[in-house]
Specification:
8 helices; single chain; Rossmann fold; binds thiamine diphosphate; 37% helix; 293 residues; alpha/beta; five-stranded parallel beta sheet
Protein backbone atom coordinates (compact mmCIF):
# COMPACT_ATOMS: atom_id res chain seq x y z
CA UNK A 1 0.00 0.00 0.00
CA UNK A 2 1.26 3.49 -0.78
CA UNK A 3 0.30 6.76 0.86
CA UNK A 4 -1.58 7.56 -2.37
CA UNK A 5 -4.10 4.84 -1.68
CA UNK A 6 -5.95 5.63 1.49
CA UNK A 7 -5.95 7.82 4.54
CA UNK A 8 -5.86 5.27 7.34
CA UNK A 9 -7.57 6.36 10.56
CA UNK A 10 -9.03 9.46 8.87
CA UNK A 11 -9.11 12.56 11.01
CA UNK A 12 -12.75 13.62 11.26
CA UNK A 13 -11.99 17.31 11.79
CA UNK A 14 -9.76 17.35 8.69
CA UNK A 15 -12.41 15.62 6.61
CA UNK A 16 -15.06 18.07 7.79
CA UNK A 17 -12.80 20.97 6.83
CA UNK A 18 -12.32 19.43 3.37
CA UNK A 19 -16.09 19.19 3.03
CA UNK A 20 -16.45 22.87 3.92
CA UNK A 21 -13.82 23.86 1.36
CA UNK A 22 -15.45 21.63 -1.24
CA UNK A 23 -18.80 23.36 -0.76
CA UNK A 24 -17.17 26.71 -1.53
CA UNK A 25 -15.59 25.32 -4.72
CA UNK A 26 -18.94 23.84 -5.78
CA UNK A 27 -20.89 27.07 -5.38
CA UNK A 28 -18.17 29.17 -7.04
CA UNK A 29 -17.80 26.77 -9.96
CA UNK A 30 -21.51 26.81 -10.75
CA UNK A 31 -21.59 30.61 -10.47
CA UNK A 32 -18.61 31.07 -12.79
CA UNK A 33 -19.89 28.49 -15.30
CA UNK A 34 -23.33 30.16 -15.29
CA UNK A 35 -24.86 26.72 -15.26
CA UNK A 36 -25.00 23.36 -13.54
CA UNK A 37 -26.60 21.79 -10.48
CA UNK A 38 -26.22 22.88 -6.87
CA UNK A 39 -28.73 21.23 -4.52
CA UNK A 40 -27.66 17.64 -5.26
CA UNK A 41 -23.90 18.27 -5.16
CA UNK A 42 -24.27 20.03 -1.79
CA UNK A 43 -26.22 17.10 -0.33
CA UNK A 44 -23.70 14.53 -1.63
CA UNK A 45 -20.37 16.16 -0.87
CA UNK A 46 -19.76 14.86 2.70
CA UNK A 47 -20.09 11.30 1.42
CA UNK A 48 -17.82 11.90 -1.57
CA UNK A 49 -15.10 13.35 0.63
CA UNK A 50 -15.48 10.43 3.05
CA UNK A 51 -15.12 7.95 0.20
CA UNK A 52 -12.17 9.56 -1.59
CA UNK A 53 -10.22 10.59 1.51
CA UNK A 54 -11.15 7.82 3.91
CA UNK A 55 -12.39 4.70 2.16
CA UNK A 56 -11.49 4.06 -1.46
CA UNK A 57 -8.34 2.16 -2.34
CA UNK A 58 -7.10 4.42 -5.14
CA UNK A 59 -3.95 5.91 -6.62
CA UNK A 60 -4.73 9.40 -7.96
CA UNK A 61 -1.47 9.41 -9.96
CA UNK A 62 -2.59 6.16 -11.65
CA UNK A 63 -6.32 6.71 -12.29
CA UNK A 64 -6.54 3.48 -14.29
CA UNK A 65 -4.84 1.26 -11.71
CA UNK A 66 -6.71 -2.03 -12.36
CA UNK A 67 -7.15 -3.00 -8.70
CA UNK A 68 -8.62 0.32 -7.55
CA UNK A 69 -12.02 0.50 -5.89
CA UNK A 70 -14.56 1.89 -8.31
CA UNK A 71 -16.94 4.77 -7.73
CA UNK A 72 -19.87 5.56 -10.04
CA UNK A 73 -21.76 8.80 -9.58
CA UNK A 74 -25.03 7.55 -11.01
CA UNK A 75 -26.71 10.87 -10.15
CA UNK A 76 -24.38 12.32 -12.77
CA UNK A 77 -25.96 15.78 -12.73
CA UNK A 78 -24.08 16.26 -9.42
CA UNK A 79 -20.81 16.10 -11.39
CA UNK A 80 -19.36 19.27 -9.85
CA UNK A 81 -19.25 17.49 -6.47
CA UNK A 82 -17.30 14.60 -7.99
CA UNK A 83 -14.91 16.90 -9.90
CA UNK A 84 -14.28 18.98 -6.79
CA UNK A 85 -13.47 15.87 -4.77
CA UNK A 86 -11.23 14.46 -7.51
CA UNK A 87 -9.40 17.80 -7.80
CA UNK A 88 -8.86 18.08 -4.05
CA UNK A 89 -7.65 14.45 -3.98
CA UNK A 90 -5.05 15.21 -6.65
CA UNK A 91 -6.42 13.78 -9.92
CA UNK A 92 -6.12 17.23 -11.50
CA UNK A 93 -5.70 20.79 -10.29
CA UNK A 94 -8.30 22.66 -8.30
CA UNK A 95 -7.84 25.52 -10.81
CA UNK A 96 -9.29 23.25 -13.52
CA UNK A 97 -12.66 23.50 -11.74
CA UNK A 98 -12.89 26.99 -13.29
CA UNK A 99 -13.36 25.30 -16.69
CA UNK A 100 -16.47 23.41 -15.56
CA UNK A 101 -18.96 22.93 -18.39
CA UNK A 102 -16.90 24.90 -20.95
CA UNK A 103 -16.97 23.44 -24.43
CA UNK A 104 -13.40 22.09 -24.45
CA UNK A 105 -13.22 21.25 -20.77
CA UNK A 106 -12.53 17.77 -19.38
CA UNK A 107 -15.14 18.62 -16.77
CA UNK A 108 -18.41 18.41 -18.62
CA UNK A 109 -21.86 18.91 -17.10
CA UNK A 110 -22.20 15.15 -16.80
CA UNK A 111 -19.23 12.84 -16.10
CA UNK A 112 -17.45 11.37 -19.12
CA UNK A 113 -15.17 8.41 -18.35
CA UNK A 114 -13.38 8.86 -21.69
CA UNK A 115 -11.98 12.29 -20.86
CA UNK A 116 -11.86 12.87 -17.10
CA UNK A 117 -9.17 11.22 -14.95
CA UNK A 118 -10.75 9.37 -12.05
CA UNK A 119 -14.21 8.97 -13.58
CA UNK A 120 -14.96 5.24 -13.68
CA UNK A 121 -18.30 5.39 -15.48
CA UNK A 122 -20.10 7.95 -17.61
CA UNK A 123 -23.47 8.97 -16.22
CA UNK A 124 -26.19 11.59 -16.42
CA UNK A 125 -29.11 9.69 -17.86
CA UNK A 126 -30.62 8.69 -14.52
CA UNK A 127 -30.31 4.98 -13.73
CA UNK A 128 -27.67 4.17 -16.33
CA UNK A 129 -24.65 4.73 -14.10
CA UNK A 130 -26.02 2.33 -11.52
CA UNK A 131 -26.52 -0.46 -14.06
CA UNK A 132 -22.93 0.15 -15.17
CA UNK A 133 -21.84 -0.27 -11.55
CA UNK A 134 -23.67 -3.60 -11.34
CA UNK A 135 -21.82 -4.68 -14.48
CA UNK A 136 -18.47 -3.57 -13.04
CA UNK A 137 -19.09 -5.57 -9.86
CA UNK A 138 -20.14 -8.64 -11.83
CA UNK A 139 -17.08 -8.27 -14.06
CA UNK A 140 -14.80 -7.94 -11.04
CA UNK A 141 -16.06 -11.24 -9.70
CA UNK A 142 -15.58 -12.93 -13.08
CA UNK A 143 -12.03 -11.56 -13.26
CA UNK A 144 -11.21 -12.69 -9.71
CA UNK A 145 -10.62 -9.11 -8.51
CA UNK A 146 -11.46 -8.19 -4.95
CA UNK A 147 -12.05 -4.45 -5.26
CA UNK A 148 -15.35 -2.91 -4.15
CA UNK A 149 -17.66 -0.94 -6.44
CA UNK A 150 -19.60 1.95 -4.93
CA UNK A 151 -22.43 3.76 -6.69
CA UNK A 152 -24.28 6.87 -5.57
CA UNK A 153 -27.86 7.38 -6.66
CA UNK A 154 -30.41 10.11 -6.03
CA UNK A 155 -33.74 9.32 -4.40
CA UNK A 156 -35.55 10.81 -7.42
CA UNK A 157 -33.32 8.63 -9.58
CA UNK A 158 -34.82 5.62 -7.82
CA UNK A 159 -38.03 6.35 -9.75
CA UNK A 160 -36.27 4.93 -12.83
CA UNK A 161 -37.24 1.37 -13.74
CA UNK A 162 -33.69 0.55 -14.76
CA UNK A 163 -32.53 1.06 -11.16
CA UNK A 164 -34.71 -1.84 -10.07
CA UNK A 165 -33.61 -4.04 -12.96
CA UNK A 166 -30.03 -3.49 -11.79
CA UNK A 167 -31.00 -4.06 -8.16
CA UNK A 168 -32.59 -7.37 -9.16
CA UNK A 169 -29.51 -8.55 -11.07
CA UNK A 170 -27.17 -7.58 -8.21
CA UNK A 171 -29.23 -9.59 -5.75
CA UNK A 172 -29.59 -12.50 -8.20
CA UNK A 173 -25.78 -12.79 -8.35
CA UNK A 174 -25.32 -12.01 -4.62
CA UNK A 175 -22.87 -9.22 -5.44
CA UNK A 176 -21.17 -8.74 -2.09
CA UNK A 177 -18.68 -6.40 -3.77
CA UNK A 178 -21.29 -3.73 -4.54
CA UNK A 179 -22.45 -0.87 -2.31
CA UNK A 180 -25.15 1.59 -3.40
CA UNK A 181 -25.47 4.86 -1.52
CA UNK A 182 -28.79 6.61 -2.02
CA UNK A 183 -28.66 10.35 -1.40
CA UNK A 184 -32.09 10.66 0.21
CA UNK A 185 -32.44 14.44 0.22
CA UNK A 186 -36.23 14.15 -0.20
CA UNK A 187 -36.37 16.43 -3.25
CA UNK A 188 -35.85 15.90 -6.94
CA UNK A 189 -35.90 18.37 -9.84
CA UNK A 190 -39.58 19.35 -9.59
CA UNK A 191 -41.46 16.25 -8.54
CA UNK A 192 -45.08 16.32 -7.49
CA UNK A 193 -46.40 19.42 -5.79
CA UNK A 194 -48.03 19.21 -2.39
CA UNK A 195 -50.62 21.58 -0.92
CA UNK A 196 -49.28 24.34 -3.21
CA UNK A 197 -46.96 24.43 -6.22
CA UNK A 198 -44.28 25.91 -3.95
CA UNK A 199 -44.26 22.80 -1.77
CA UNK A 200 -42.79 19.66 -3.33
CA UNK A 201 -43.38 16.13 -2.15
CA UNK A 202 -40.40 13.81 -1.60
CA UNK A 203 -39.98 11.06 -4.22
CA UNK A 204 -40.14 8.48 -1.40
CA UNK A 205 -41.55 9.09 2.07
CA UNK A 206 -41.08 7.43 5.45
CA UNK A 207 -39.47 4.00 5.14
CA UNK A 208 -40.35 3.49 1.49
CA UNK A 209 -36.80 3.54 0.15
CA UNK A 210 -35.52 1.22 2.88
CA UNK A 211 -38.45 -1.13 2.32
CA UNK A 212 -37.97 -1.26 -1.45
CA UNK A 213 -34.24 -2.00 -1.40
CA UNK A 214 -34.92 -4.59 1.28
CA UNK A 215 -37.70 -6.13 -0.83
CA UNK A 216 -35.19 -6.46 -3.68
CA UNK A 217 -33.01 -8.61 -1.43
CA UNK A 218 -30.42 -6.01 -0.51
CA UNK A 219 -29.01 -5.55 2.99
CA UNK A 220 -29.93 -1.97 3.94
CA UNK A 221 -28.32 0.47 6.34
CA UNK A 222 -29.37 4.04 7.06
CA UNK A 223 -27.15 6.95 8.03
CA UNK A 224 -27.01 10.69 8.43
CA UNK A 225 -25.22 11.70 5.22
CA UNK A 226 -23.81 14.83 6.86
CA UNK A 227 -22.27 13.16 9.91
CA UNK A 228 -18.71 12.18 9.06
CA UNK A 229 -18.35 9.64 11.88
CA UNK A 230 -21.58 7.95 10.91
CA UNK A 231 -20.72 7.96 7.19
CA UNK A 232 -17.38 6.24 7.77
CA UNK A 233 -18.81 3.72 10.22
CA UNK A 234 -21.75 2.82 7.98
CA UNK A 235 -19.61 2.43 4.87
CA UNK A 236 -17.23 0.20 6.85
CA UNK A 237 -20.21 -2.00 7.86
CA UNK A 238 -21.36 -2.10 4.24
CA UNK A 239 -17.91 -3.18 3.01
CA UNK A 240 -17.75 -5.89 5.64
CA UNK A 241 -21.05 -7.39 4.45
CA UNK A 242 -19.87 -9.78 1.76
CA UNK A 243 -22.68 -12.19 0.97
CA UNK A 244 -24.82 -9.80 -1.08
CA UNK A 245 -25.20 -6.19 -2.19
CA UNK A 246 -25.70 -3.39 0.35
CA UNK A 247 -27.73 -0.21 -0.01
CA UNK A 248 -27.10 2.71 2.31
CA UNK A 249 -29.99 5.12 2.54
CA UNK A 250 -28.32 8.40 3.47
CA UNK A 251 -30.56 11.05 5.00
CA UNK A 252 -29.39 14.40 3.66
CA UNK A 253 -30.49 17.96 3.03
CA UNK A 254 -30.67 19.24 -0.53
CA UNK A 255 -28.57 22.42 -0.78
CA UNK A 256 -26.84 21.64 2.55
CA UNK A 257 -24.61 24.40 3.92
CA UNK A 258 -26.19 27.47 2.32
CA UNK A 259 -29.24 28.65 4.27
CA UNK A 260 -31.38 29.82 1.37
CA UNK A 261 -30.60 26.75 -0.76
CA UNK A 262 -31.42 24.16 1.91
CA UNK A 263 -34.57 22.11 1.31
CA UNK A 264 -35.55 24.36 -1.59
CA UNK A 265 -36.20 22.47 -4.82
CA UNK A 266 -35.66 25.67 -6.83
CA UNK A 267 -31.92 25.31 -6.15
CA UNK A 268 -31.77 21.96 -7.93
CA UNK A 269 -30.11 23.68 -10.88
CA UNK A 270 -30.20 27.43 -10.30
CA UNK A 271 -27.21 29.73 -10.76
CA UNK A 272 -26.58 32.16 -7.89
CA UNK A 273 -26.55 35.88 -8.60
CA UNK A 274 -23.48 37.85 -7.47
CA UNK A 275 -25.28 38.84 -4.28
CA UNK A 276 -26.37 35.26 -3.58
CA UNK A 277 -22.83 34.02 -4.20
CA UNK A 278 -21.47 36.56 -1.73
CA UNK A 279 -23.93 35.42 0.94
CA UNK A 280 -23.11 31.76 0.27
CA UNK A 281 -19.37 32.46 0.53
CA UNK A 282 -19.90 34.32 3.78
CA UNK A 283 -21.87 31.42 5.21
CA UNK A 284 -19.37 28.79 4.08
CA UNK A 285 -16.11 30.67 4.72
CA UNK A 286 -13.02 30.81 2.52
CA UNK A 287 -12.06 27.65 0.57
CA UNK A 288 -8.51 27.48 1.91
CA UNK A 289 -9.39 27.83 5.55
CA UNK A 290 -10.20 30.61 7.96
CA UNK A 291 -13.45 32.50 8.21
CA UNK A 292 -15.21 34.70 5.75
CA UNK A 293 -13.38 37.79 4.57
C1 LIG B 1 -33.46 9.57 -17.64
C2 LIG B 1 -33.42 10.99 -17.15
N1 LIG B 1 -34.58 11.67 -17.01
C3 LIG B 1 -34.55 12.95 -16.57
C4 LIG B 1 -33.37 13.58 -16.31
C5 LIG B 1 -33.36 15.05 -15.86
N2 LIG B 1 -33.02 15.15 -14.44
C6 LIG B 1 -31.78 15.47 -14.03
S1 LIG B 1 -31.62 15.49 -12.37
C7 LIG B 1 -33.23 15.08 -12.16
C8 LIG B 1 -33.81 14.90 -10.78
C9 LIG B 1 -33.04 13.89 -10.01
O1 LIG B 1 -33.47 13.86 -8.68
P1 LIG B 1 -32.59 13.15 -7.58
O2 LIG B 1 -32.17 11.82 -8.10
O3 LIG B 1 -33.36 13.16 -6.32
O4 LIG B 1 -31.31 14.05 -7.54
P2 LIG B 1 -30.77 15.07 -6.43
O5 LIG B 1 -31.93 15.58 -5.63
O6 LIG B 1 -29.82 14.31 -5.58
O7 LIG B 1 -30.09 16.15 -7.21
C10 LIG B 1 -33.89 14.94 -13.38
C11 LIG B 1 -35.32 14.58 -13.55
C12 LIG B 1 -32.18 12.82 -16.50
N3 LIG B 1 -30.96 13.35 -16.24
N4 LIG B 1 -32.23 11.53 -16.90
Amino acid sequence: MTDQMIVTQPDITELEELVRQARVHIVRSIASAHGGHLGGPLSAIDMLVALYFGVLQIKPDQPDWPDRDRFVLSKGHSSIALYTTLAMRGYFSVEELDTFDAINSRLQGHPDMAITPGVDMSSGSLGLGFSGAVGIALGARAAGKDFTTFAMLGDGECNEGIVWEGAHVAERYRLGNLVAIVDHNKLQQFGWHGESVEVRLPPYTGNQLVDRWTAFGWKVFEMDGHDMNEILATIAKAKAHSNGPVAIVAHTVKGKGVSFMENNYKWHARVPTEEELAIAERELGEPTGGGAS
